[in-house]
Write a structure and sequence with these properties.
The chain is α/β, with parallel strands linked by helices. Helix content is 23%, strand content 25%. This is FAD dependent oxidoreductase.
């Protein structure tokens, strides 16, 4: 059924584009996506990178099942080409615990009938291909989930953009939303920093880590946090040797590392609480290569050392390679790790939030727009309405980052060239 409600989606990342595609599939005829970046996919957006983990391994069955649906879609090469790589995911946790994130995730994956191999009685190193130099990892336990891997994030977003435009959706780059236009409780559009006005019957804020700073009245259950990433360059021979390795994800330390991509780059990061970057308004705002071209990619030197230690723990033979690149990847972190999807409670059903990815939304790129579209259509189940509500009391702590504390970014502690060696 055709739906001619004029819809403006602010943000062309995972949430924004997936929502646009789903609405167009449902017969909506006037859908426009705008983005602050002049080049798309946005070079500093969380949805644009050469890899993101794709896993079903969650203690929450909702996310596990949704990820299973997403992976089924990712595997369809007619839809997503070769963006998805099923390398397997090695999920690790503390040896002394039977109630940790990793173990509860294993029970969910097992319940869903996935191809999982418990490694309590098997040396973890046996899941890696011959010839790779792997640390003992004897202080950890875990399991290999063969039904997972990683996706080329930038490629996935580019494919999604083409899908949106093929259904006559409009995507406009270089438009930075400055304020919502409102009449009482009704949102009627967006004014951009260049004074362009986009009128709309429905506005969807899918602005990721920029949501809090761009729209300070949108809610207080989320904030922008920066997370540290580093890369090493392998030789062609090394790349071939390590290419069939699984993604390694250690929930005890938060360290994770990918197999090399086609350019023989290996990316690693730490899933932690991250850094805030607050200004005079006390609202955390992303600091990226766009806002700070000279130093926007640098990470704190303490985190460079932490990443080096993680690399040495997993792949000691690669641990002396210099970091050829670093960056802070900015998330929109909710206070409980659940997403923020639904009508703003004071919007007269004219303003929707689709954000709060909390570092684990991208893998759901093929399906996450269904949740937003269901919320718009008032078809979301009551439990999910409550789970994702803009004005909810946080449901519970984010289990994947228990005990980790957010710190304010100290610009005097950013790494120097010597710290990358």
């Amino acid at each position: 059924m055709a739906h001619n409600r004029k819809t403006l989606i602010v943000g062309s990342g995972c949430f924004g584009l997936s929502t646009a595609l789903e609405l167009l599939k449902r017969g909506w005829t006037d859908v426009t996506v705008i983005d602050r970046a002049t080049t798309l996919p946005a070079p500093d957006g969380a949805s644009n990178d050469f890899n993101r983990i794709v896993r079903t391994s969650y203690p929450d069955p909702f996310y596990s099942k949704l990820a299973q649906d997403a992976i089924a879609s990712w595997k369809n090469r007619d839809e997503w080409d070769d963006a998805y790589h099923e390398s397997g995911v090695l999920v690790l946790g503390p040896r002394a615990s039977d109630v940790d994130y990793a173990h509860k995730s294993y029970l969910n994956d097992l319940e869903m009938g996935l191809r999982v191999v418990l490694l309590e009685q098997t040396a973890i190193g046996q899941v890696f291909p011959p010839g790779t130099d792997v640390g003992s990892l004897s202080h950890l336990k875990g399991y290999l989930n063969r039904d997972g891997g990683w996706a080329n994030a930038g490629q996935g977003v580019s494919i999604l953009m083409k899908k949106v435009t093929a259904l006559n959706g409009k995507i406009i780059a270089g438009k930075t939303a400055a304020e919502l236009i409102q009449q009482g409780q009704k949102t009627t559009g967006v004014r951009c920093s260049d004074e362009t006005v986009f009128e709309a019957d429905l506005v969807v804020l899918a602005t990721g880590s920029w949501t809090g700073s761009a729209f300070p009245n949108a809610g207080n259950i989320f904030q922008a946090t920066g997370h540290c990433i580093a890369m090493v360059q392998l030789t062609k021979e090394e790349g071939n040797r390590y290419r069939q390795c699984p993604v390694v994800l250690d929930f005890e330390s938060g360290f994770y590392i990918f197999p090399p991509n086609d350019q023989n780059l290996v990316k690693m990061a730490v899933h932690a609480a991250g850094y805030t970057h607050t200004g005079a308004n006390h609202i955390s705002t992303p600091r990226t290569i766009t806002s700070d071209p000279e130093t926007g990619l640098l990470i704190p030197r303490a985190n460079a050392k932490e990443l080096r230690n993680g690399l040495r723990m997993v792949y000691p033979g690669l641990a002396d390679k210099p970091f050829v690149a670093t960056r802070l990847c900015w998330y929109c972190d909710s206070r409980d790790g659940d997403w923020v999807i639904g009508y703003h409670p004071q919007s007269d059903k004219s303003l929707v939030l689709a954000t709060g990815g909390s570092g684990h939304a991208y893998k759901f790129l093929p399906v996450i727009g269904r949740l937003v579209a269901d919320a718009i259509d008032d078809k979301l189940s009551p439990d999910l309405v409550a789970k994702f509500a803009v004005d909810r009391t946080p449901n519970q702590p984010d289990e994947s980052r228990l005990g980790r504390v957010v710190h304010e970014l100290d610009l005097t502690q950013l790494c120097k060239p010597a710290d990358l060696q």
